[in-house]
Amino acid sequence: MKRFFFRISSALAGVALTAAPSLAHTAAPKDEIKVLIVANWEVGNDSGDEPGEYQDWVERLHLNEKVHVRGIPDVLRRNSDGVYAIVLKQGSLDLNALALDPHFDLHHTYWIFSGISGVDPNVASVGSVAWARWVVDGDALREIDDRTIPKGWQYGLYAIGADRPDTLPANANHYGSVTDVAELTKAYPLNQSLARWAFNLSSKVKLSDDTVIAERRAQWKGFPNAQKAPFILMGETLGAERYWHGPSRNKWAENWVKLWTKNQGQFVMTNEESQHYQLDIRTLSSLGYLDANRVMVLRSGSNFDMPPPGVSITDSIGDEAPGQKLAFDNNERAAEPVISELLKHWDEYKTHIPG
């Protein structure tokens, strides 16, 4: 490498160096992203047809301008106020490409990771929206067939390195290079002060309801929170690539979130991607590309993660369609006052994180 540099330097020795200052003056300024909405998928077009996770944001925030991101086919959408949005069609590739693209400045960006989820009927109802304090990873674990588990176990899912469900590993050696059990955590803490600030701003928002969903709520006898009209709350997001369903797995999710948050968190929403993106965010923040303290996670319930009383698991799994549109709608509604406040007082919030 040094010899290559020497040859280049020698070749340029006789070239005037007056170009460098002019390049510095003519370099295009970076796009400063004030607020960035992150969605996970969209069906059809970004606007004008049936909505997915992205469309309500595009239409209601007037994100009419498209901006290309270097190295990926997907684009950002933005409005004149500094609000941007992206749907991560390529997953983590999109997220990392955006952070590494020198055309954008993400150092003061407030992120809202949005999306629909399965919701715990013990805590909330379909159409409800939750601001998370933690994102919990539900992927890396040990699994034994529930039909062969030892007597007294609720399920065959437990932490790697532990000897039974609902307990933490006794030591860190099971993960090789890890030397401290604390490093094994599956809970990614968000900025809880910022989450509470966002919740307080949005808590009085009037959410939408749906007649079909309202009729279905009557099935949930013995689950008072599942029978409520949609509401806004604070509660944790569990990300797991397995599409799980049923009361046994719901109990595992409740206990898994409590375990890794040291009984401070409450499981509310489950989806398949949050854990990956929060790990990406933490890595990018540690490298100086963005500020993880400005990240918010807002999930809405499109369906329950277990069947109502009297309904079989196989008849209820994947029953998302009736609640999806409601969940899309309320997700955006809950975030509007937060976005509005950030823009209204941007001079303050650019350098001082609220909460």
Automatic annotation (TrEMBL):
This protein is called: NUP-family purine nucleoside permease
| Cited InterPro entries | Pur_nuclsid_perm
The superkingdom of the source organism is Bacteria
Provenance organism:
Gluconobacter wancherniae NBRC 103581
Give one Pfam hit by family name: NUP
GO BP annotation list: transmembrane transport
**Hey, what's the signal peptide range on this chain?**
1-24
The protein's UniProt keywords, in alphabetical order, are: Signal
